[in-house]
Each structure stands twice: as C-alpha cells, then as structure tokens.
Design brief:
The protein has about 160 residues and is an all-alpha fold. It has one domain (about 1-155). It has helices spanning about 1-25, 35-60, 60-85, 95-115, 125-155. The longest helix has about 30 residues, at about 125-155. It is globular.
C-alpha cells in the first residue's frame, strides 16, 4: 500500500494545482451559476480524497479503500459528463487543465490497481504518516475554503422572497 500512498501524494499535488489555479483563481468556478453541479462533484472529490488518505494512514481494509475509489470513479465520470456544459462560456477546458485531469484520472486508476493487487495488510513509515497528515490538514482547509466560496455564491444568487 506504500505504492498506493505515494501515488496518492503525487495526485494531491496535481489536484492542488488544478483547484487553486484553475478552479479558484483563473475560472472562479465557485462564482459561476453554470458550474454549481461541477463544484459539487469537486467538493465530493475533496472528501473522497481525504477519506482515502485517512484510510491508507489508518490501515483500513481493502473493501473500504476500494469502495472509496469506486465512488470516486463514478463521481469523476459524472464530473466529465457535466464539465462541458459547465464550461461552455469558457470555451471548455484549457489544454493544460485537460492534461492535469487526465493525469489525475490515470493516477487514481493506478491507485485502485495498487490497492487491489497490494498486500492484505500494510504499514507506512513515520515520514509517510507525517506527509499524509499534512496532506489531510491542507485538504480539509482547501475543502473548507472552496465549500464556503461555493455556498456564499449560491446563497447570493437565490431570489429574495418576502
């Protein structure tokens, strides 16, 4: 599972670039009414990533890890299905963002393969635990920030009723 963990840490860096630069800074997806459903898939991905990282850190069983990865796969398919419409006025994904999404998707598939083929039990080094916990803390902070932005903008678009 050390391989699955290391792959996940690499995907975390790809995801951080994608979220911080493309989603929050360049496209401000949280402020786009057309992107609300896409934002929901992104927020779910944050939670699934955190659950997967915590699962690997705690030595959770393969059924839990595989379940999280399958839900992430389904969420990713939904995200792909709605992304084109969500980004229509932005002319779709940029080539670099498409590459990042492709790398992350292939990476998560490789994590699934590493979990399925990996040993039934494992332990991670103390340094991997530290890196994993730092990743979880940063992931929770990023989830919180993006969630607040999405909710504040969704709330501000509601029609006022008296």
């Amino acid at each position: 599972m050390s391989l699955a963990f290391e792959l996940l840490m690499g995907i975390a860096m790809i995801g951080a670039i994608d979220v911080l630069y493309f989603h929050l800074y360049r496209h401000r997806l949280y402020a786009r009414p057309d992107s609300l459903a896409e934002n929901v898939t992104h927020l779910l991905r944050h939670l699934l990533f955190i659950a997967l990282t915590l699962g690997l850190l705690s030595g959770a069983g393969k059924p839990f890890l595989i379940g999280v990865l399958v839900v992430d796969l389904v969420n990713n398919v939904i995200d792909l299905a709605i992304e084109r419409e969500s980004r229509r006025s932005l002319d779709g994904l940029s080539p670099l963002e498409s590459v990042l999404h492709g790398l992350a998707s292939v990476g998560m598939g490789t994590v699934l393969l590493a979990v399925v083929l990996g040993p039934p039990s494992w332990s991670l080094s103390s340094m991997q635990h530290v890196r994993g916990l730092v990743t979880v803390v940063l992931g929770v902070a990023l989830f919180g920030a993006e969630c607040c932005l999405v909710m504040m903008n969704a709330r501000s678009r509601r029609p006022v009723t008296t």
